[in-house]
Amino acid sequence: MSKVMKCMCEECHYNQKFECHADGIEVMSSGDRQVKSPDGTCCSTFKSK
C-alpha cells in the first residue's frame, strides 16, 4: 500500500504534522461523480478531531 505523503486537512483526526496516520484511506468521487481534477475527489477516511 502506498503511504500518504501529505495531508492538508488540519481538521482530520489522522493528520499529524501534515502526514496521514490512518491505517489506510479510501478516496471517492465527490459532487457529480465526474472526476477530472483533484477537486472532484474526497477522502472518505476523514474523521473529525
Rounded average pLDDT:
86
Alpha carbon gap, first and last residue: 25 Å
Number of helices: 0
Percent strand equals 15-25%
**Number of spatially distinct domains:** 1
- Give the oligomeric state: single chain
Number of beta-strand segments: 4
**Poorly predicted ranges (pLDDT <50, ≥5 residues)?**
none
- Secondary structure: helix percent: under 10%
In which order are the strands of the major sheet placed?
A: 1-2
Series of H and E elements: EEEE
In this structure, how is the largest beta sheet organized?
A: 2 strands, antiparallel
Based on CA inertia axes, which overall geometry fits?
globular
C-alpha-based Rg, rounded: 11 Å
What class do helices, strands and sheet pairing give?
Answer: mainly beta
